[in-house]
Amino acid sequence: MASTRTAAGWLIAPNGRARLGPRILGIGIGAGLGLGLGTGAVAGIGWVYSSILLDPTVRPIYPERVLAADRDTVTLVANRLTRQPGIWGLRWADGLAAVGPVVGGDRHRVVRELRGGPVPPAGTEAVLDTGPYDPDPGALGLAFEAVDVPGPLGDYPGWVVPGGDQPWVVLVHGRGGTLREGLRILPALHGRGHPVLVASYRNDEGAPPSPDGHYHLGDTEWADLEAAVAYVRGRGADRVVLMGWSMGAAIIGAFLDRSPAADRVAAVVWDAPLVDWRATLRQQARNRRLPGQLSPLAGAVTERRIGIDFDRFDLRRRPPAVRPPTLVVHSTADTAVPPWTSRSLVAAAPRLDWPMRLVEVPDVEHTAAWNADPAAYERTVTGFLDEVLG
Questions:
Q1: 129 contacts 90 by C-beta, under 8 angstroms
Q2: What is the DSSP letter of 363?
Q3: Torsion of the alpha carbons at 84, 11, 27 and 57, rounded to the nearest 10
Q4: Among residues 83, 39, 51, 48, which one has the least CA distance to residue 64?
Q5: Which of 20, 110, 325, 377 has the CA that lies 20 to 30 A from 350?
């Protein structure tokens, strides 16, 4: 779910933009607790942590710095994230360029190919963005239709990319993301003949806000996905394929458990799926160097504030009612959603009567499996669909 700098930040967003907010908690919380922080203060910290989780406001940050650039290369300050392999967007306040693999550098500098877009000036603050394309399917040479999908809170913006006679695919981005998340996989799906709806849900830009102004972490957003499925069925879809990133997987999981339309789902593709909210909250607490006891506290506060039952989002213990063939792709270096949750779910799949396959990708962060090797990722997804759709 945003900036790939997750060690100190919140869940990565598919659009590559980070939320500020974790810094509210600041350095010294652990020390403060150790020095006798009272019960009320601890509860207050749990409330703040919960507020960060539920806040749909996106505040972009640009943690990287451009040292030099020309038409062929861009040089960035070296760190674990700027050294990630593959194809990325480099986004700054008023620009986006596509950057390719690392071609040089040293302990302090990383030199990458500059593959397209404007040349960022030296000194520019930027972020490696999982999405190298802007602003819509037209950037990929694909014809598309901007649509409004009627849903439970109003009209939800989306993109329809027409296709052939394969089942419709509905794409569901993660927390803090936008429709742009779906752009990377669109050419491969279009080439296979799938019509595609790139769907939005409540609190997205241009979509209705939730009544209380909070994310509900899949617990209400699944109804927006149900509306998206109804929309494509109204346009002639019989079977549908659902693909989701990060919290998009939690939304799909809730849909598969609760919607009468779930029996229309022929296959699911999940990228860095959030299949255990409690485990993910524990990971995020560790990212912030918060004491372990704050994670269950924040979870309990969140459950009370939005009425969610996190037990329903532990899919290994509470699998959805409908369990279609599912491909799970997860990067082993993901510090936002722990990869072991995907491994654990796939290991349990046989006893859950859930046809499921796991593909792990090394060396990249959350939702960046495509970026590591786009061609291999696309072959994995289309090969899976070839197999399960016939």
A1: yes
A2: S
A3: 120
A4: 83
A5: 377
Let me know: does 251 contact 276? Beta carbons within 8 Å: no
Task: State how far the Cα of 114 lies from the Cα of 324, in Å rounded to an integer.
Answer: 40
CA distance 303 to 46: 12
Contact 265, 322 (CB under 8 A): yes
User: What are the DSSP E strand ranges found in 106-165?
Assistant: 109-116, 125-129, 145-151, 154-161
**Alpha-carbon span 312 to 106, nearest angstrom:** 47
Taking the CA atoms of residue 378, residue 313, residue 346 and residue 279 in that order, the dihedral angle to the nearest 10 degrees is: 100
Query: What pLDDT shows up at residue 40?
Result: 64
**pLDDT at residue number 138:** 98
At which residue do the structure tokens 């609190």 appear?
203
Of 40, 46, 55, the closest CA to residue 25 belongs to: 46
Q: Are 290 and 30 in contact (CB under 8 A)?
A: yes
Q: Measuring CA to CA, which residue among 282, 301, 300, 302 is closest to residue 292?
A: 282
State residue 19's pLDDT score: 32
Residue partners of 202: CB distance under 8 A and separation at least 6: 153, 156, 208, 209, 210, 220, 221, 224
Per-residue pLDDT, 103: 98
Integer CA distances (angstroms), 48 to 216, 303, 360, 366, 389, in order: 16, 14, 34, 24, 45
Calpha distance 234→89 (Å, rounded): 35
> What is the spatial distance between Cα 66 and Cα 75, in angstroms, rounded to a whole number?
6
CB 230 within 8 A of CB 159: no
Pick out the chain residues at pLDDT < 50. Answer: 1-37
Mean pLDDT (the chain) is 90
What pLDDT, on a 0 to 100 scale, did the predictor assign at position 10?
Answer: 32
In the Cβ-directed half-sphere of 70, how many Cα atoms lie within 13 Å?
1
Task: State the pLDDT at residue 334.
Answer: 97
C-alpha span between 18 and 21 (Å, rounded): 9
Residues 359 and 367 sit within 8 Å (Cβ to Cβ): no
Amino acid (1-letter code) at residue 375? A
The CA-atom distances, in angstroms, between 126 and each of 131, 193, 339, 378 are: 14, 36, 27, 27
